[in-house]
Amino acid sequence: MITAHTVLDAINEIGRSYPALYRNICDETGKTRKHLNVFVNSDNVRDLKGVDTPLKAGDLVTVLPAVSGG
Amino acid sequence: MPDRVILTIGTKKGVFVAEASKTRRAFTLRGPSGPGVPVYATFIDTRGATPRIYAGSCNPFFGMKVLRSNDLGKSFKETKSAPAFPQDDGRALANIWSIEAGAGKKDLLCGVEPASLFKSRDGGDTWEMVAGISNHEHARKWQPGNGGLCMHTIIRDGKRVHLGISTGGHYLSEDGGETFRAANNGVGAGFAPDPYPEFGQCVHKIARHDAAPGRLYMQNHGGRADWTGPGGPRPGIGVLRSDDYGHTWRSIAKGLPSDFGFPIVVHPHNPDVVYVLPLDPATRSCPGAAPAVWRSENGGASWGRLAGGLPKKQSYFTVLRDGMDMDGLKNPALYFGTTTGQLWMDREGGERWECLFDSLPPVHNVKVGIV
After folding, report:
1. Residue B84 · residue B124 · CB < 8 Å
2. Domain map of chain A by residue range?
3. What is the block-wise mean pLDDT of chain B (371 residues), using blocks of 10 residues?
4. Nearest residue on chain B to A67, judged by CA atoms?
5. Which of A52, B68, B187, B271 could form a disulfide with B212 if both were Cys (CB 3.0 to 4.6 A apart)?
6. Is A28's CB within 8 Å of B61's CB?
7. Do A28 and B84 lie within an 8 Å CB cutoff?
8. What was the ipTM of the complex prediction?
9. Fold for domain A7-65?
């Protein structure tokens, strides 16, 4: 459970609380890794406002690897 | 008394470790570790009382990791951190291409993509960027080759440090790695109007031997003998030698079926003996679909074909820049791994090959150590 107003707030909170996990989600420039997708509930944030997508109480943020590779 | 031969095999699907007694009659295979994740760089560190194996695990989803094993590859763990650019640099690590020993007992050097150099003083737990090359005035002008913008070769020679960058060229430090300058006099480029630019060459691999101070061998991006556009043909630019610590280079490609290839390996006991694996420049696979290692026993003055035991036809693999190595036993064996997942070994100077493993994932990297 994280208190955050946006997806970016949530990711940054992960960075403070779980730095090893953060490095898996974001590169050293602070950008979300390009083969990861971030969802708020069922919606990909790329279809919303990206990492600036606002969060409200009870929203579920999910980070999943993209379907790619071989 | 060394009694085990250890092979690290970096593949598209993780790192494998093969072990044999020094007779090399039978290898046992373990792995993959870091399964499913490409490994382009491995390093067998025999400097301490306990040998260590390092592998660069290049996860396209979750980023780059350095893996370390203290039990000869039975298990690997992530080091506490991997190389990373400073946050305000703007670059992000895209791949780990080389891991080598640094000057101190626990020092490591790591070449990455985008081409930059990192140093660790604690066996890979913390890393700092080496500004002299990573922030070199040329660095933002280097261009990625087909494999990416990679720093793939790191050679230490006292106060000298040689770096190979694709595509950047050969860079030389003579002050222990503080400052670097491009040293590509005689190194051709086949993909630019100027055949001999100051920098920007697509160097594929560089090798040297302690017993021949000043001598270096280079496998460069050749295959441009027939070019008829601006700048004209560039025959023989693919296989080169330097006798002055890399300040100038000359072709030693005469006699080879192709001057295109990726790895170049020097015999551990004789600096005049050098091995390459020529490839067709258009397909990057074996010329005539018949693979062969070529050996020079006179420092590149002439070459001979070594294909005993290798397929004679219908063979289309590629051997990548770090896919060939030679052990340091009294009668050393040569090894290479293929993009079709085979690992070949020869115990007779390259004249009788046998396939150790035939169904690995595509092989990026083969290193051998005696422990």
Report:
1. no
2. 7-65
3. 88 98 96 97 96 96 96 97 95 97 96 98 98 98 90 97 97 97 96 93 97 97 90 94 98 97 97 97 94 97 96 96 96 97 89 95 98 96
4. B61
5. B271
6. no
7. yes
8. 0.87
9. Ubiquitin-like (UB roll) (3.10.20)
